[in-house]
Amino acid sequence: MARPFRDQIEDSILDRAAALFARRGYAKTSVQEVADAVGLSKAGLLHHFPSKEALHQAVLGQAEALGRRVLDQVGDLPHGPARDRHVLEFLLDLALAHPGLVALLLAPLTQGEQEAAIAEVDAAGAAALEAFGVDPAAPPSERAIRVVGSLTALAVLTLAAHAQDQTTAWRPFIVATCFDALGHRRPGADLPVTDQVEA
Q: Rounded CA gap, 128 and 137, in Å?
Protein backbone atom coordinates (compact mmCIF):
# COMPACT_ATOMS: atom_id res chain seq x y z
CA MET A 1 0.00 0.00 0.00
CA ALA A 2 1.43 3.42 -0.98
CA ARG A 3 2.46 5.53 2.03
CA PRO A 4 0.26 8.59 1.21
CA PHE A 5 -2.80 6.33 0.91
CA ARG A 6 -1.87 4.53 4.15
CA ASP A 7 -1.44 7.89 5.91
CA GLN A 8 -4.87 8.97 4.69
CA ILE A 9 -6.44 5.75 6.02
CA GLU A 10 -4.67 6.13 9.35
CA ASP A 11 -5.76 9.79 9.65
CA SER A 12 -9.35 8.66 9.10
CA ILE A 13 -8.99 5.91 11.70
CA LEU A 14 -7.53 8.33 14.24
CA ASP A 15 -10.28 10.90 13.70
CA ARG A 16 -13.07 8.32 13.99
CA ALA A 17 -11.43 6.83 17.07
CA ALA A 18 -11.12 10.30 18.62
CA ALA A 19 -14.83 10.91 18.00
CA LEU A 20 -15.74 7.60 19.66
CA PHE A 21 -13.42 8.26 22.61
CA ALA A 22 -15.09 11.67 22.98
CA ARG A 23 -18.61 10.24 22.89
CA ARG A 24 -18.17 7.00 24.82
CA GLY A 25 -14.88 7.42 26.69
CA TYR A 26 -11.74 5.37 26.18
CA ALA A 27 -12.76 2.53 28.52
CA LYS A 28 -16.17 2.02 26.88
CA THR A 29 -14.93 2.16 23.27
CA SER A 30 -14.00 -1.18 21.76
CA VAL A 31 -11.59 -1.89 18.91
CA GLN A 32 -14.52 -3.45 17.04
CA GLU A 33 -16.53 -0.20 17.31
CA VAL A 34 -13.65 1.78 15.84
CA ALA A 35 -13.22 -0.83 13.07
CA ASP A 36 -16.95 -0.64 12.28
CA ALA A 37 -16.82 3.17 12.17
CA VAL A 38 -14.07 3.15 9.54
CA GLY A 39 -15.34 0.18 7.55
CA LEU A 40 -12.54 -2.23 8.44
CA SER A 41 -12.49 -5.63 10.04
CA LYS A 42 -11.06 -5.80 13.54
CA ALA A 43 -7.97 -7.53 12.08
CA GLY A 44 -7.68 -4.80 9.45
CA LEU A 45 -7.73 -2.11 12.12
CA LEU A 46 -5.18 -3.99 14.22
CA HIS A 47 -2.93 -4.11 11.15
CA HIS A 48 -2.68 -0.30 11.42
CA PHE A 49 -2.69 -0.06 15.22
CA PRO A 50 -1.80 -3.26 17.13
CA SER A 51 -3.94 -2.50 20.22
CA LYS A 52 -6.53 -0.13 21.60
CA GLU A 53 -3.82 1.49 23.72
CA ALA A 54 -1.63 2.01 20.62
CA LEU A 55 -4.62 3.59 18.86
CA HIS A 56 -5.32 5.84 21.85
CA GLN A 57 -1.67 6.91 22.06
CA ALA A 58 -1.68 7.66 18.32
CA VAL A 59 -4.78 9.87 18.73
CA LEU A 60 -3.09 11.80 21.55
CA GLY A 61 0.14 11.98 19.55
CA GLN A 62 -1.76 13.42 16.61
CA ALA A 63 -3.32 16.10 18.83
CA GLU A 64 0.11 17.05 20.14
CA ALA A 65 1.65 17.07 16.64
CA LEU A 66 -1.12 19.33 15.33
CA GLY A 67 -0.54 21.67 18.27
CA ARG A 68 3.15 21.87 17.37
CA ARG A 69 2.22 22.60 13.74
CA VAL A 70 0.23 25.62 14.88
CA LEU A 71 3.17 26.95 16.88
CA ASP A 72 5.55 26.33 13.95
CA GLN A 73 3.23 28.28 11.63
CA VAL A 74 3.07 31.42 13.74
CA GLY A 75 6.26 31.35 15.81
CA ASP A 76 7.93 34.14 13.81
CA LEU A 77 4.90 36.43 13.62
CA PRO A 78 4.60 39.36 16.06
CA HIS A 79 1.67 39.22 18.48
CA GLY A 80 -1.35 41.25 17.44
CA PRO A 81 -4.50 41.07 15.31
CA ALA A 82 -2.73 39.79 12.17
CA ARG A 83 -1.19 36.88 14.08
CA ASP A 84 -4.50 36.17 15.85
CA ARG A 85 -6.30 35.95 12.52
CA HIS A 86 -3.60 33.70 11.06
CA VAL A 87 -3.81 31.39 14.10
CA LEU A 88 -7.61 31.28 13.87
CA GLU A 89 -7.60 30.41 10.19
CA PHE A 90 -4.93 27.74 10.64
CA LEU A 91 -6.74 26.22 13.64
CA LEU A 92 -10.05 26.31 11.79
CA ASP A 93 -8.60 24.43 8.84
CA LEU A 94 -7.19 21.81 11.23
CA ALA A 95 -10.53 21.59 13.06
CA LEU A 96 -12.49 21.18 9.83
CA ALA A 97 -10.14 18.37 8.77
CA HIS A 98 -10.27 16.62 12.18
CA PRO A 99 -13.79 16.90 13.69
CA GLY A 100 -13.30 13.79 15.84
CA LEU A 101 -10.24 15.30 17.44
CA VAL A 102 -12.17 18.53 18.07
CA ALA A 103 -14.88 16.52 19.81
CA LEU A 104 -12.23 14.81 21.94
CA LEU A 105 -10.70 18.15 22.91
CA LEU A 106 -14.14 19.43 23.92
CA ALA A 107 -15.20 16.30 25.82
CA PRO A 108 -13.66 17.26 29.17
CA LEU A 109 -15.57 20.54 29.07
CA THR A 110 -18.89 19.22 27.80
CA GLN A 111 -19.05 15.95 29.69
CA GLY A 112 -17.46 16.90 33.01
CA GLU A 113 -14.74 14.30 32.56
CA GLN A 114 -12.30 13.61 35.34
CA GLU A 115 -8.89 15.25 35.57
CA ALA A 116 -7.18 12.38 33.75
CA ALA A 117 -9.17 13.10 30.60
CA ILE A 118 -8.29 16.78 30.80
CA ALA A 119 -4.59 15.95 31.18
CA GLU A 120 -4.73 13.86 27.99
CA VAL A 121 -5.50 16.87 25.83
CA ASP A 122 -3.48 19.48 27.75
CA ALA A 123 -0.61 19.49 25.23
CA ALA A 124 -2.86 20.45 22.32
CA GLY A 125 -4.72 23.06 24.38
CA ALA A 126 -1.49 24.54 25.71
CA ALA A 127 -0.12 24.85 22.17
CA ALA A 128 -3.26 26.67 21.04
CA LEU A 129 -3.01 29.10 23.95
CA GLU A 130 0.69 29.69 23.29
CA ALA A 131 -0.04 30.41 19.62
CA PHE A 132 -2.17 33.32 20.85
CA GLY A 133 0.59 34.43 23.23
CA VAL A 134 -1.11 33.16 26.39
CA ASP A 135 0.98 31.31 28.97
CA PRO A 136 -1.14 28.32 30.06
CA ALA A 137 0.47 28.41 33.52
CA ALA A 138 -0.22 32.10 34.13
CA PRO A 139 -3.17 33.30 36.24
CA PRO A 140 -6.36 33.99 34.24
CA SER A 141 -6.46 37.33 32.45
CA GLU A 142 -8.95 39.01 30.14
CA ARG A 143 -6.80 37.94 27.18
CA ALA A 144 -6.69 34.32 28.36
CA ILE A 145 -10.45 34.23 28.84
CA ARG A 146 -11.04 35.77 25.40
CA VAL A 147 -8.71 33.19 23.82
CA VAL A 148 -10.43 30.30 25.60
CA GLY A 149 -13.82 31.69 24.52
CA SER A 150 -12.64 32.05 20.94
CA LEU A 151 -11.21 28.51 20.86
CA THR A 152 -14.38 27.09 22.38
CA ALA A 153 -16.51 28.92 19.82
CA LEU A 154 -14.26 27.64 17.04
CA ALA A 155 -14.64 24.06 18.26
CA VAL A 156 -18.41 24.19 18.75
CA LEU A 157 -19.06 25.98 15.47
CA THR A 158 -16.81 23.59 13.58
CA LEU A 159 -18.72 20.60 14.90
CA ALA A 160 -22.04 22.32 14.10
CA ALA A 161 -20.83 23.10 10.57
CA HIS A 162 -19.93 19.42 10.08
CA ALA A 163 -23.33 18.33 11.42
CA GLN A 164 -25.07 20.67 8.97
CA ASP A 165 -22.69 19.80 6.10
CA GLN A 166 -21.87 23.52 5.85
CA THR A 167 -18.11 23.60 6.50
CA THR A 168 -17.29 25.73 3.45
CA ALA A 169 -20.26 28.09 3.80
CA TRP A 170 -19.73 28.68 7.52
CA ARG A 171 -15.93 29.08 7.43
CA PRO A 172 -15.82 32.91 7.05
CA PHE A 173 -18.47 33.36 9.74
CA ILE A 174 -16.61 31.12 12.17
CA VAL A 175 -13.42 33.13 11.63
CA ALA A 176 -15.31 36.43 12.10
CA THR A 177 -17.05 35.21 15.27
CA CYS A 178 -13.82 33.95 16.83
CA PHE A 179 -11.93 37.11 15.81
CA ASP A 180 -14.63 39.21 17.48
CA ALA A 181 -14.39 37.05 20.62
CA LEU A 182 -10.71 37.96 20.83
CA GLY A 183 -11.73 41.62 21.08
CA HIS A 184 -10.80 42.67 17.56
CA ARG A 185 -13.32 44.78 15.75
CA ARG A 186 -14.12 44.15 12.14
CA PRO A 187 -15.16 47.02 9.88
CA GLY A 188 -18.94 47.36 10.15
CA ALA A 189 -19.14 45.16 13.26
CA ASP A 190 -21.41 47.68 14.99
CA LEU A 191 -23.93 47.68 12.16
CA PRO A 192 -27.07 45.55 12.40
CA VAL A 193 -26.77 42.34 10.40
CA THR A 194 -29.26 43.51 7.76
CA ASP A 195 -27.21 46.68 7.16
CA GLN A 196 -24.00 44.66 6.82
CA VAL A 197 -25.55 42.50 4.12
CA GLU A 198 -26.81 45.50 2.16
CA ALA A 199 -23.63 47.58 2.53
A: 13
Low-confidence ranges of the chain (pLDDT < 50): 114-118, 191-199
Cβ(162)–Cβ(170) below 8 Å:
no
Considering only CA atoms, which of 176, 178, 166 is closest in space to residue 196?
A: 176
Burial 147-176 (b: 16+ CB within 10 A, else e): bbebbbbbbebbbebbeeeebeebbeebbe
Cβ(60)–Cβ(49) below 8 Å? no
Report the alpha-carbon distance of residue 160 to residue 92 in Å, rounded: 13
**pLDDT in the model for residue 189:** 55
Q: Are 20 and 29 in contact (CB under 8 A)?
A: yes
Helix count (H) and strand count (E) of the chain? 11, 0
CA proximity to 159, closest of 115, 105, 96, 110: 96
- Work out the number of other CB atoms within 10 angstroms of the CB of residue 60: 19
**What is the distance in angstroms between the CA of the first residue and the CA of the last residue of the chain?**
53
- Note the pLDDT tens digit of each residue in 112-154: 554 444 455 566 778 888 899 998 888 889 999 999 899 999 9
Q: pLDDT value at position 167? A: 92
